[in-house]
Design goal:
With about 775 residues, the protein is of the alpha+beta class. α16 (about 590-595) links the parallel β19 and β20.
């Protein structure tokens, strides 16, 4: 608590400067908390001469000198003081005051300018962002540096905050004292234990407005950082906490501290755990200041106050303490971290805001809105901390937030993101690698942004290459949201387009196994209906899993038979692998599993594990013929970030043997579902392949009446029991299960238990 700065006479300082450094110039004493600082101006330049506190450990002084030299080597343009040697090449010198007390002295270059604290009118958002950027540069320059003396119990180190509780009695205001004690207790009990697991390094730990230098002629830039006397080895985030401290910023609202954090994050990205504790650390720093100031004023009332705005500081602490929950959310928004899952978000307000800005009819899956903020593997997490086993979303095919995909996307986004009219490596690498997983005739790619776009482009290709205008689809099909996709979609009760004809889907549960000759007959009949309207088929498009058709068990010879009939009539075959590809059915591609040789394959959704990416794959001959007549280009299709996501998905599928896992776990899932059907009469049929399963729910196993209303109710009950599933089929009574390919037997067991309880609930 006792600052006890040296008071060496100016004539002694002048003599030492000449003797040790050969400097003779104008001397100006500067303010300092613990040392005695003098500015020296000579014809050659400006310097800072420091007489170190007599109680300062020489090793700590050595720490500061070594750190400044490390910084100079790492970032030579960083505007911080440079440690200068004596005439004899020593790091420091020694002088004595009039009483014979020895003091270590050292010389540094002088960082010219005024402090932010002396120009509060210039403390703008731009300047605060600049201060965050400069501090981040400093922390990067200090990375890798260590000195034994850095591991010290410095009085201003945030880790020492708990020790200040014994001094809080000096705070005269009762409300302020209670606030400070509450903050210190929280830092001690909750915050410091969390920071123990965060990034640590040597930090400046004193980059407040009194140590950030500006040039008033360039008011948006930080001109330098000074005063390295508080350096310690500590959690990295504590450096930012000091810089975002509201002390010394009397007119700044708490939200103003976001600017400093944003600037810092733009240079040295913050980690989520660090952002989560930043507000509490800022409060801890302010509580530390309030306590030390009050204690010093009480212990040494005759010494000029270190901080003469105590009442203002107490008010700032109270304001920030009251707004802390909102500030934590605000910091996340400012640094673009996802929202927390701690129950602090208002779901009802969010839904109202969504309807206001996205329309009142913006759809929801559940009656009670499901508010999600996180995903990991097979789990989704609600904003209130509830978790849900995800057996519905086929988009994150290798699991939510798979770290390899996340890293690939992040790294590529930090390097380049543009379109395919430029040459870059990973689009070519991805196209080559993707086509190598398909038949030899499928050897070229067109990149778009979604499965809908892929199907639209495939339809354009089919019309151009064949010269025909008709389209064949499966009954109750779904193929996207573009106009072409809507025309292909017969699952929503829309009037069928005049150029579209349906082929009945197989249904062995209700009609028995569809033989090849029946498939051929149905396909030929559809071709004839087109012919009656003066059209030939340009294409037959099929979702190999036939999800919208109820996930039927497709006989092995069904699709080959349909394909032959279409090809004889002059049409191309389009395999829509959006839902069935990448191992979903226990084989890499659904069309290969079902024996069909398509002319075009379309991909979407899972191809980038949720990152927008769609692909059209065909033969070089077909693509060349199309491109000779049509100029087609997608600005964002196949951009480097999307291709990085696609490559990472292929990496994970291969490295984690996910096709094999889909096959094995698919068998296990089917076994467990059939066992469940023995005790749950709502289950009329179980079907599917790999990690795609359909349960046909019926009100009566004899009549096979679709249990449409019960299925809708079951989805709600499953959600309440912690599992997410979907529905499909013409009567919306097929329970659709599409867990990520990383699903394990343990996950399946857990899901079966949830499904069992839910079926019992809706049956009672």
């Amino acid at each position: 608590m006792d600052r006890n700065p040296p008071q060496v006479p100016v004539e002694v300082i002048a003599s030492a400067l000449l003797k040790l450094y050969g400097l003779d110039g104008a001397l100006t004493e500067l303010d300092s908390e613990r040392d005695q600082n003098t500015r020296v101006v000579t014809d050659e330049g400006s310097y800072l001469f420091k007489v170190c506190n007599a109680d300062e450990d020489p090793e700590v002084i050595d720490l500061q000198i070594k750190a400044l030299r490390h910084i100079a080597a790492r970032d030579e343009h960083l505007p911080v003081p440079r440690a200068l040697p004596t005439l004899s090449g020593e790091d420091t010198g020694l002088i004595h005051d009039q009483e014979g007390t020895p003091y270590i002295v050292r010389l540094m270059s002088f960082v010219a300018g005024d402090t932010i604290r002396s120009h509060p009118e210039l403390d703008t958002p731009a300047l605060r962002r600049s201060s965050g950027e400069m501090l981040a540069r400093l922390d990067l320059a200090l990375r890798g540096f260590f000195h034994p003396a850095a591991d010290q119990e410095h009085p201003w180190t945030m880790t020492q905050v708990p020790k200040l509780l014994e001094y809080t009695h000096s705070i005269s205001d009762n409300v302020a004292r209670r606030n400070v004690e509450m903050i210190i207790a929280k830092v001690r009990d909750e915050v410091l234990p969390r920071t123990a697991h965060m990034r640590h390094q040597v930090v400046h730990q004193d980059a407040h407005t009194g140590n950030l230098v500006i040039d008033p002629s360039r008011p948006t830039d930080i001109a330098g950082i000074i005063d390295f006397g508080d350096m310690v080895y500590a959690p990295l985030i504590m450096d930012l906490a000091v810089a975002t401290d509201l002390t010394g910023r009397p007119s700044l609202s708490p939200e103003g501290m976001f600017d400093v954090a944003v600037g810092y994050d733009s240079v040295l990205p913050l980690e989520e755990a660090e952002v989560d504790v930043l507000v509490d650390l800022i409060l801890g720093r302010m509580a530390m200041t309030a306590t030390i100031v009050a204690a010093r004023n009480a212990l040494w009332p005759l010494v000029p106050a270190y901080h003469d705005h105590e009442v203002q500081l107490w008010s700032q602490i109270e304001t920030l303490l009251a707004s802390a929950p909102d500030m934590r959310i605000g910091l996340r928004r400012a640094t673009r971290f996802p929202m927390p899952i701690d129950g602090t978000l208002d779901t009802a307000k969010l839904r109202a805001d969504r309807e206001r800005v996205m329309g009142e009819k913006s759809p929801h899956f559940y009656k009670e809105t499901l508010h999600l903020e996180r995903g990991k593997g097979v789990w989704l997490y609600g904003s209130n901390g509830d978790k849900y086993l995800d057996f519905y979303n086929n988009v994150p095919t290798v699991g939510h937030a798979h770290p390899h995909v996340v890293n690939a996307v992040s790294r590529q986004l930090a390097a380049l993101n543009t379109h395919t009219r430029y040459l870059y490596n990973n689009s070519v690498e991805y196209a080559d690698r993707l086509t190598s997983t398909l038949g030899d005739h499928l050897d070229v790619c067109l990149f778009v942004n979604s499965g809908s776009e892929a199907n639209d482009v495939a339809w354009q290709i089919s019309q151009v290459v064949t010269g025909n205008a008709g389209l064949l689809v499966m009954h109750n099909a779904y193929h996207g949201i573009t106009q072409a996709g809507i025309d292909m979609t017969t699952a929503k009760g829309l009037d069928r387009a005049t150029h579209v004809e349906e082929i009945p889907a197989p249904d062995d549960y209700r009609r028995g196994v569809t033989k090849a000759e029946v498939a051929t007959r149905d396909a030929n009949a559809a071709v004839e209906r087109l012919a009656a309207r003066g059209m030939k088929p340009a294409a037959f498009i099929v979702d190999s899993a036939m999800c919208s058709s109820g996930i039927p068990d497709v006989p092995d010879d069904f699709l080959p038979a349909v394909a032959r009939a279409v090809q004889v009539a002059g049409g191309l075959i389009i395999a829509d692998e959006v839902q069935s590809g990448f191992g979903r059915l226990g084989a890499m591609w659904g069309h290969e599993l079902l024996g069909m040789r398509p002319d075009i394959v379309t991909l979407g959704k899972p191809v980038g594990n949720g990152h927008p990416l769609g692909v059209v794959i065909t033969s070089r001959a077909i693509l060349d013929e199309f491109q000779a007549q049509v100029r087609l280009f997608s600005t964002f299709g196949g951009n480097p970030v999307s291709c990085a996501a696609g490559l990472a998905v292929l990496d994970v599928i291969e490295r984690e043997d996910l096709v094999e896992n889909s096959q094995a776990m698919g068998r296990y899932l089917q076994e467990q579902l059939w066992k469940l059907a023995e005790t749950q009469p709502l289950i009329g049929d179980v079907r599917g392949r790999g990690l795609l399963a359909g349960l046909e729910l019926v009100t009566d196993r004899t009549t096979k009446e679709p249990a449409t209303a019960t299925t809708l109710k079951l989805l709600e009950v499953m959600r309440e029991n912690g599992a997410l599933v979907g529905k499909d089929g013409e009567h919306a009574h097929i329970l659709k299960l599409r867990p990520p390919l990383v699903t394990t037997a343990t996950d399946i067991d857990l899901f079966i238990g949830m499904l069992d309880r839910s079926l019992t609930t809706v049956s009672s």
